[in-house]
Write a structure and sequence with these properties.
18 strands, globular, 23% strand, alpha+beta
Amino acid sequence: MKKRCLIFSLILASFFLVTGCSSDSTDTATTDHHVEVIRLAGGTDWGSPNPFLNVGRGPGVGKTKLIFDSLLEADENGIIPWLATEWSVEGNVFTFKLKEDAAFHDGTPLTSADVAFTIDYYKAHPPVSNPISNNLIQSYEIVDPGTIKISVEKPQATTIAKLGSFQILPKHIWEKVADPATFNSPEAFIGSGSYKFSSYDAAAGSYEFIANEDYSIAKPAADKIQFVPVSDPLLAFENNEIDICDVPVDVLEKYEKDDSIGIITKDNDMGYRILINFETIPVFNDLNLRAALYQGIDRQGIVDKVFRGSGAVGSAGYVPPTNLFFSDKVKTYDYNKEAALAAFKDKNIQVKIAAGNSGADVKIAELVKLNLEEIGIGVEIAAYDTQVRDDKVYSGDYEMAIVGNGGWGREPDYLRTIYSANSKNKAKSPTSMGPIGWDNPEITQLAEDQLKEMDPEKRKEMFKALQDKISQEIPIIVLATQTTNVIYRPDYYDGWTKTYDYQQFEQNRLSYVEQ
């Protein structure tokens, strides 16, 4: 019978805050067998795979996590042991016991001194993705080589996930490195992960990782992982050049009828929005004009024409309707070209929109330009390579920007990192980028307070209230979310694993170890 993977239910991260764990980290679905090579579509430069040189999007971080391990990991059911075999919480102190035979790729044992060093090094030199930023950690105590106590100011709903996910550096290498941004020698890629760095070609967007045969946590599922440059991933899949790829919804039926093909659905996990820089185009400080802007964009047209109907119109509260935290009380703004045209009449507004120059980004930009010109707004689209566009967003060098990213199905603490004046625009990641020149104290307060709420149901209600308030302010124009379907050959490899709050299984290191 044809094998089809299902969407795993979200489980609240705060359920796992005070859970002590045993050393069994492999209670998940099992892979069928070990393979020689897993080949994925490459062709995009996601940076060098270490914590300081990777691109701060999922594909860049995911590659880095193959090489550099963290204390904990996540599977379909929740947070699980990894480098730490168990942990406990007493008040604001988190104690982690490390795996006795954990080691770096060069054979050097990994100890609590490496964990402590990494904490200090990340404070002095923040990595691209830094879950322990904003002074989360107050202090630490090295109890012995296999035990470390980490103190925080006050435990919050996401504390254990953050403490468990920062990537551990080998002290004996990095203590000699004054500037990690220029450290690109072979030693810069020695970690403790399930795979070792083999090769990387920035121009081609190709990567190769080889199995760490001495890995003690789990056996690598492949001898090699290769990201192969391809111009047409679906054709490459048909030609057996890659082992997994996205499939357009309009040809999905063909593969549904093929018993040799497995299908995984990622439900509304990719989304697109328009960021507004209120400092460069202050006219949109007028809430009525923001509402008219929302009304003037045919968001259902984006779903239909770009996503071929596979997705959902963007919610003004940001969180997509399939997310378990979605509020059905958010304010809605139906497409109304006539009302928008009346609002912008005689305003003579001109905007420059930064956008990506490939894939869905181009098509969405074209439709947005057409819609805005129809309601009397002059539009110039500035199309850039994705990384260039992202850099402009990170530096605030834009008027408007169309930005897409995954992870919309997660528990929506991203509302804090996007909308809170205290947390937004703090990291080089799409989920940290919010509106420049706008803030709302009430939204900021609620976004920060949800972290302090340890009752999962109360926190869920806070997320819903936050969406409702955001939908009334609409400082970001949420366009649409996309549901994608992925095909693979289960007879060759069937180890693809989602986590309890993240559907991008290709970026999950559990997908590449035998379980």
